């Protein structure tokens, strides 16, 4: 996600285990044309097969935010004994 207008400390990322919310906001700043303030919010639904506790983020020097999340570990197939009855 391109957030080059924002500093890392102006970006807030939260998750409620079903979605990730990214909010970036900075106060009024003066530019060549006057004053400007910006705010952006993006909400992304998490796939069911990911581990919400594994979410991490990085922002590079160009303001590109990357979010990473790992897939849930696959469960080993469980063997269930089935009794045989005779009639």
From TrEMBL:
Query: What UniProt keywords are attached to this protein's entry?
Result: Stress response
Outline the extent of the SHSP domain: 1-85
Q: Which Pfam families match?
A: HSP20
Q: Which domain of life is it from?
A: Eukaryota
One MF term from GO for this chain?
Answer: unfolded protein binding
Biological process according to GO: protein refolding; response to heat
The cellular component terms of Gene Ontology attached to this UniProt record, alphabetical and capped at eight, are: cytoplasm; nucleus
InterPro entries to which the protein is assigned, alphabetical: A-crystallin/Hsp20_dom, Alpha-crystallin/sHSP_animal, HSP20-like_chaperone
PANTHER family recorded: HEAT SHOCK PROTEIN 22-RELATED, HEAT SHOCK PROTEIN HSP-12.2-RELATED
- Family that this chain belongs to: Belongs to the small heat shock protein (HSP20) family.
The protein's name in its UniProt record: SHSP domain-containing protein
Q: What organism is the protein native to?
A: Biomphalaria glabrata
Task: Please state the gene responsible for encoding this protein.
Answer: 106070686
């Amino acid at each position: 996600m391109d957030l080059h207008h924002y500093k890392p400390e102006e970006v807030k990322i939260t998750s409620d285990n079903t979605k990730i919310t990214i909010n970036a906001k900075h106060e009024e700043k003066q530019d060549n044309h006057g004053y400007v303030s910006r705010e952006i919010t993006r909400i992304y639904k998490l796939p069911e097969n990911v581990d919400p506790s594994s979410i991490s983020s990085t922002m590079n020097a160009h303001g590109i935010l990357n979010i990473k999340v790992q897939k849930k570990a696959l469960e080993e197939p469980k063997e269930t004994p089935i009794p045989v009855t005779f009639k």
